């Protein structure tokens, strides 16, 4: 199956299983430290709206998602995708910090995170999607580096 071209500058990292993965440059310190701390990740993006627009512009076939409203809604939002148990443990850790506690505990406030688990016909997806303002990437990277 062909993959979409990278939109953001990226670094290639090697997982503990020896797989090479492309990680958006701004997200690289976060992913490295999540792995160091024992979390698994299955995806990330430093700006979901911008990436979706970029992929849409480069594809010959429609995405099946990513209309203008989707792109506008997701511009400026970063994404981390983690298995549900790791996501829950990660959010619980963040909830205990002064910088991110309010952001992960209270939805729909300025700076708050959007977190969900997609529902599928036979139950929940295995991974949680953690969207957060991309402007928080440096703060998150700094906090994780100190853990």
Spell out the key features of this protein.
single chain, 147 residues, alpha+beta, four-stranded antiparallel β-sheet, two-stranded antiparallel ribbon, 6 helices, 8 strands, 36% helix
Structure description:
Helix 2 packs antiparallel against helix 3. With 147 residues, the protein is an alpha+beta fold. It has one domain. Strand 6 and strand 7 form a beta hairpin.
Overview in brief:
By secondary structure, the protein is α+β, with helices and mostly antiparallel strands. The chain has 6 helices and 8 strands.
The biggest beta sheet, please? 4 strands, antiparallel
Overall tally of domains = 1
Using DSSP, what is the number of strands? 8
Using the alpha-carbon principal axes, give the shape: globular
**So how many helices?**
6
Q: Helix share of residues?
A: 25-40%
What does the secondary structure layout of this molecule look like, with pairings?
Blueprint: E1 10-14, E2 20-24, H1 28-36, E3 43-45, H2 48-58, H3 68-74, E4 77-83, H4 84-95, H5 101-105, E5 114-116, E6 119-120, E7 123-124, E8 127-133, H6 137-145
Antiparallel strand pairs: 1-2, 3-4, 4-8, 5-8, 6-7
Helix pairs in contact: 1-6, 2-3
